[in-house]
Every structure is written in structure tokens, then in C-alpha cells.
Amino acid sequence: MTVDHGSGPENNVLTSLERGLAVLLSFELDRSPLTLSEVARATGLDRSGARRLLHSLVLRGYVRTERAAYALHPRVLEIGNAYLASLALPEIAQPHFAEVSRLLDESVSMAVLDGDEIVYVARVPVGRLMSLTLSVGSRLPAYPTALGRVLLSARPEDWLDRYLTSASFAPYTALTVTDRSRLRRELARIRRQGWAVVDQELEVGLLSLAVPIRDASGATVAAINVSSHTSRFTSAELVDAGLRTLRLASERIESVLHMERPRGA
């Protein structure tokens, strides 16, 4: 992507934004780290201009350095998450959520990953006697939730290494998994099987079963769950009762989402 440099002071802000976006987009066709020369060549910037922009992006957490090269930092996902938090995906999901909730008589939610937290972007609640109150926009730590574990399990290994090394894992209940090695094994198992169930790790009595929502490229962009109470199900019973229904809803949401994806995107 070559940048049109423009002229005049009135273009300074837009030109800087365009150049910064050009630098970010230079990574999209090549997942391996890029050298300064490669970024400059891909964007049409001179080396000093490319270096200044890369330095700014590193300081803001959108790009990381790898030896003598640069790579995107997972924080760039915040840009995509901002889109997912808009009406498009929740609107697509809502009728399928309502059907799952009707069939299982349980609450159904969708969340995206934002750093080490999940953000709820859609929800169909069913009244139960639980102390946890959730709504669209609510945030929770990712590690003790089924939604969060599905989303974490889809992250690259280097991202997970940093997360498991730096994050704090507090026990919300006596059952919360706080051991880093055990959590890593659990995330690997979730990645293999394609779903997660969490039994009373966030709140005593709370069960949750979650599956991913993937875009047309196969990347996990969100997760949906059904939550229940131990007075109604064991974790195994919730999987038996809800997994097929939840997966079917996920497939239907994905089919619409893939059709909504712009051509050439």
C-alpha cells in the first residue's frame, strides 16, 4: 500500500493517520515479522518516516519488536472488537439466541476478547437467583469463564505465553483454576474439542457452556454461551443438553456473518 503524502498543513493530521494505517496494513498479507526496509517498501515511505511511525505504534502497543523486525501486537484486535461491539453481529445473532434460550430455558450471551477480559456484546437473559448481574457492555476476566476460555484458546501461542506469564489469576471460588500450567492444558483441550464448559469457577452454582463464532477465514471473532445453575444441571448434563443446540446456533450465525462480509475484505 503506497501512501499519497498530500501537501499543506490542513492535510497533516489525515496524512499521519493514513501513513499509520498503511504501516499496520503492510502486515496483513504476510504474517511473519517485517524489517524496517520491508515496511518502508510496502508503504512507499522513506526509512526515517517508517521508523517514526513504527516507533509510535510500538509505544501505543499496536506493534511489537522481534529482534531486528516488527510484528503486529494482539492489541490491534481492539480495532476489530470495536466493530463487533457495534450492532451488526448482535443483530445477526439475536434471533438465534432467542431460539436457544427458548429451547433450553437458559440465558444465552455473546462476548468478544478485549485484552485479558471479555466484553458482552449481546445477551438474552433468563431470570435465575444468581448474584452476578450481566448486561451488554459488562466485562469479566477471561480465564474463569467458558466464553473467555474459548476466545483465549484461539489466540496464538506467543500471545498465550505472554498472557499466562503476566496475567493475575485470582480464585473467585474454591474451584477456580489458577495454576498456569493447568490453565494452559485446559486451553489446549478446548482448542482441540471446539467448546468449553466451566463449572462454578466464577460463581458458586454457575455453569457455562461456550462455543466459538468464526469468520470466513476461520478466525475466532466471538463466542456464545448458555449459562445455567447447578440446581438444574451438572456440567456433563449441560453439555449433553446444550452443545448440539449451541453449535447449531453458532453455525447459523456464521453462515449469515460470512454473507455479510464485504467482497474482497
Automatic annotation (TrEMBL):
Keyword Transcription carried by entry: yes
GO BP term (any one): 3,4-dihydroxybenzoate metabolic process
Tagged with keyword Transcription: yes
Keywords: DNA-binding, Transcription, Transcription regulation
Gene3D superfamilies the UniProt entry points to: 3.30.450.40, Winged helix-like DNA-binding domain superfamily/Winged helix DNA-binding domain
Domain IclR-ED residues, every copy: 75-259
Domain HTH iclR-type: 14-74
MF term (GO), any: DNA-binding transcription factor activity
InterPro entries: GAF-like_dom_sf, HTH_MetabolicPath_Reg, PcaR_PcaU, Tscrpt_reg_IclR_C, Tscrpt_reg_IclR_N, WH-like_DNA-bd_sf, WH_DNA-bd_sf
A Pfam family it matches: HTH_IclR
Protein name: MarR family transcriptional regulator
